[in-house]
Amino acid sequence: MQDIAMISLELIQNSVSAKASKIDFTLALAQEDGTSTMIIADNGCGMDEATLAKVSSPFFTSRTTRKVGLGVAFFKQAIQQAAGSWNITSALNQGTTVNGTWESKHWDAPPLGNLGEVILILLQGHPEIHLVFNFSTNSSVYTFDSKTFEASIAPVPLSEPAILKWIESEINTNIQNCKGGIDYEKSR
Questions:
Q1: Sequence-ordered list of residues with C-beta below 8 angstroms from that of 178, at least 6 positions apart, any chain
Q2: What is the pLDDT of residue 101?
Q3: Is CATH 3.40.50 the right assignment for the domain spanning 4-179?
Q4: 3-state SS assignment for residue 187
Q5: 148 alpha carbon, distance to own chain's centre
Q6: Cβ(71)–Cβ(62) under 8 Å?
Q7: What is the pTM of this model?
Q8: Which residues touch 139 (CB under 8 Å, ≥6 apart)?
């Protein structure tokens, strides 16, 4: 089973391929209504209606490096397996938003995975992209904004390996703190 981190990495790679300069990644776990939500929104090149209609098929991709497009298909499958719903909206030259909500305690709810590593991978390969990562639970909220953080460490570059490892660790620690010791995977 794909975890949330791997699914989000695929979707974020789609945003990078769409030449996004800003990506908003929001993950709200175990909300009061018993659901979890993931939203990835970008300001990339967007899609026309014909492309948007085909994007959830694993046999469709706009990439030239492979013949299948698995990011949206995996996202759709994971969300639907956990009794959830998903949608994708896009407009040419305005960006794309992928949104999914699922039952937090559903047996097939995707495990969390290493979200700090996903952020590290994105920033390592594309430090110029403005990433805003919002993570929340019923009791806590954590936000990482790459441009705000980059300004706070100037003149050290965001792509410095020691900085990236610190960011990964800091994100994972803050996620654990937000969860308040509750193991999302075991709460199902």
A1: 135, 136, 137, 139, 140, 141, 142
A2: 96
A3: no
A4: coil
A5: 19
A6: no
A7: 0.88
A8: 178, 180
DSSP string, 123-186: HHH-TTSEEEEEEE-SS-EEEEEHHHHHHHHTTS-TT-HHHHHHHHHHHHHHHHHHHTT--TTT
- Torsion angle of C-alpha atoms 170, 176, 180, 181, degrees rounded to 10: -140
Peptide bond into 155 cis (omega under 30): yes
Residue type, 138: N
Q: How far apart are CA 95 and CA 98, in angstroms?
A: 10
Domain ranges of the chain: 4-179
Instruction: Say which DSSP state 4 is in.
Output: H
Q: Which two tokens stand for residue 134?
A: 């919002």
Concatenated DSSP letters for 35-104? EEEEEEEE-S----HHHHHHTT-TT--S-SS-S---HHHHHHHHHHHTT-EEEEEEETTTEEEEEEEEET
Q: How confident is the model at residue 67, as a pLDDT?
A: 43
**If the chain, 188 residues long, is cut into consecutive pieces of 10 residues, what is the mean pLDDT of each piece?**
87 93 95 93 92 68 50 87 94 95 93 94 94 93 96 92 95 88 52
Q: Work out the angle at residue 71's Cα, subtended by the Cα atoms of residues 168 and 95, and round it to the nearest 5 degrees.
A: 85
Distance between CA 51 and CA 116 in Å, rounded?
A: 31
